[in-house]
Amino acid sequence: MSEAPSGAPERIVVVGASLAGLSAAHALRGEGFAGSLTLVGDERHAPYDRPPLSKQVLRGLFSPDTTLPRHPDLNAEFRLGTPASSLDLDARTVSLGDGTTLPYDRLLIATGTRARPWPKSDEASLDGVFTLRNRDDATKLSGRLKAGPRRVVLVGGGFIGFEVASTCRDLDIPVTVLVRDGQPLEAALGPRLGGLVGEIARERGVDLRLGAEIERMEAEGGRLTGVTLKGGERIEADIVVAAIGAVRNVEWLEGAGLAADEGGVLCDGYCRVLRQNGDIVPDVFAAGDIARWPNPHQDEALVAVEHWGNARAQAKAAARNMLAGPAAGLARHDHLPDFWSQQFGLTIKLVGLTEGADSLVIAHGSLEERRFVALYGREGRTVAAASIDSARWLPAYAAAIRERAPFPPISDAVDQPRLRIEEP
Fold first, then answer.
1. Which residues pair with 376 in a beta bridge?
2. This protein's superkingdom (predicted)?
3. Which residues pair with 406 in a beta bridge?
4. Could you give all domains of the chain from N- to C-terminal order, each with its CATH number?
5. pTM
């Protein structure tokens, strides 16, 4: 156990009013904190759930109002639509964009990420060019999809892009997906399984272009009419969705002396934020997409993950450690990263992180059936497991990852094929 912050807090400020921030607020009250609790959010909406935005909301199955449940006795002040502008560690204050200042005894940084904008600002401002990260983004894009565009062009090979592509096909909208490097979903699943998802997308009618980039966008009267690819081909389109990654919201921390950069806010295994010189700031914590922390399941490698489950788990760990007395010590945040996605009629689930994996085995089912569990190994140890429409075995493999089991950890299950180890 590590030493806890000294003194019981009377005022806690949470900067970030999304899943991690609200989860921390509930956990603080659940741990018995009865003092002043303030949540600061740059959006005007109450905390809401983001995963449905790229799926059910775009399809019109859900309202854009995916507000997260809030305990009636939370007794917290919400400062919404007012972003934090700076942090003063010495004074223990957070300044807001409206000029007000909030003092704190404990601070949680949970400002998350925003969509990475299209790099050419003149093209990004065209009518018809979108990103998808927040509720307002989903509302605007959903309205345009309902109008029946001629074609949607998606840029990016990650989960958001492919979820939107799947939604477009569900709505019978022609869609082209441009993947500049490698295979779709390669960063999360590796080229083998990512390539399989790409095959399935093509079977569902997606015009998938690998190694393709936009040279320029074309418009008439400020409205998008198409894109020209490097190589000269023109694609007529009413909508471009730039799904090219996320930017961590660290700008407001400039000058505060924290170890914060485009990779996130660096914290230790107990969610305590670090200064630029490596010292711990005992009363400032981080959680959610903004946090970069040593992952015990990857030999303490620093990771920052944009996963729903990690945001909740890390927020709870931070809340507990904010309130821990000197006798109790601190609890380690040791959540095993996990993720899921629904697209093209498939449910994809992943536990662990595949980065650095050097081997792959299909442990249950088969690629041909499009129903299987795949295991990832690194240097003889099981580090991740992924399933497509076959999640029954995932809890067993999650336990094996936590136990640092050899690769592959289970070789005598009754429904296993003959194991053949390959490259990912």
1. 360, 384
2. Bacteria
3. 381
4. 11-114+247-323 (3.50.50.60), 117-244 (3.50.50.60), 354-402 (3.30.390.30)
5. 0.94
